Amino acid sequence: MVAIVAIVTIGTIGTIRAQGFSLDWHGFVNPHYYADSRSVVGGREDMMLFYPKPILRDSLGNDINDGWQADMLAITARLGLRITGPEMLGAKTSAYIEGDFTGSTNATINDLRLRHAYIDMLWENRRKISKGSREYDVLISSHRLLAGQYWYPMVIHEIMPMTNPLNMGAPFHCYARQPQVRYEYYFLGIEFVAAASWQLDNMSQGLLNGAPASSTLFTRHSLVPELNAQLRFRGEDIFFGAAVNLKTIQPQVQTVYTTEQPSTDLYSSFSWSLFGKANIGPVTFKAQTLLNNSLYEGCSLGGYLMLADSTFKDWHFNTVWLDIERNNGHWRPGIFLGFAKNLDYGNANFVHCFGRGHDIEYLWRIQPRLTYLTGNGLSFTGEAEYTRAGYDEPVGNLRLSLSMTYAF
Length: 408
Hints:
- The chain has one domain: Porin.
- Helix content is about 5%, strand content about 55%.
């Protein structure tokens, strides 16, 4: 049976190449060991760490969330396939499919999960420019249309922190993917991005049949996709820009019979971001500031309140972070620094609270790391991550992690 599948696969690849398509398989295997000094709020066996849990005392006054625990996982093993095709409609065409084994929820951990699946069409305007005795191929302008599952628009992947664990800077930096239609226009270093996205794995919170729940129904019933616009500048060693995001949901959805008329009121929230990256010699600097107004779906902070009169009120986090890393050589030291401030801390005038971090006044993290690259796809990383959460009684968690990656 295996032999038959192999023959069919090889034959299919040969047919595809004959028609002007090419395939590129790649991925990595990434076993990861980590230990925490206390229980944390997170996902996927807490490999996705957000912040430490608050103090919870037993009948003897002991904090049951305090104490070391450790785990090892290889669920981030990843396989991707890029398909490059012939020119169509005047555009360079390609498609990309990628999966890992983190599952779509905590209950499905170790199952194959779709990370990316999109079609990419690129129209370019290039010109030959002579300078002295040399001739250069210069990109003047381009249009790009991307449709499928891709990075959540508030994830600026060009500046993504290169931290070791699954969170990749979250909850200070967003980390999620969404089905979307995305358009990018580039002209002489200036880039405009517009995206309309929907939900799948990362869902909004609200009242489903009168009970708090996470569901895609809250966005589906609003009929409005999440809208995002960005203005960016790209240079040889510098990249910076700004983004604005609008999310609209219907926080109350009824799918079963009820004698009461369910509310169909919509709730909309804006979030803003400034971001940048610079290569200065052998060092890369990345930074971002976010005004998080309900970016729960992006694995970040913030949310909204449902009041007694069934109206809604925003609550915000202001987040800043900085990532510094050496960008060449075998040894790659780096450090991530993050800080978030709850601008509506202490507001208890609500019936339901939806989001992440409402009971935290502030959150900060310091995360040094050291990576050794062999240069042949094999690397080793050690990292220490300390996160401090400003509950009524502030607590901190120290995570120590070791990992190795074999990329191909």
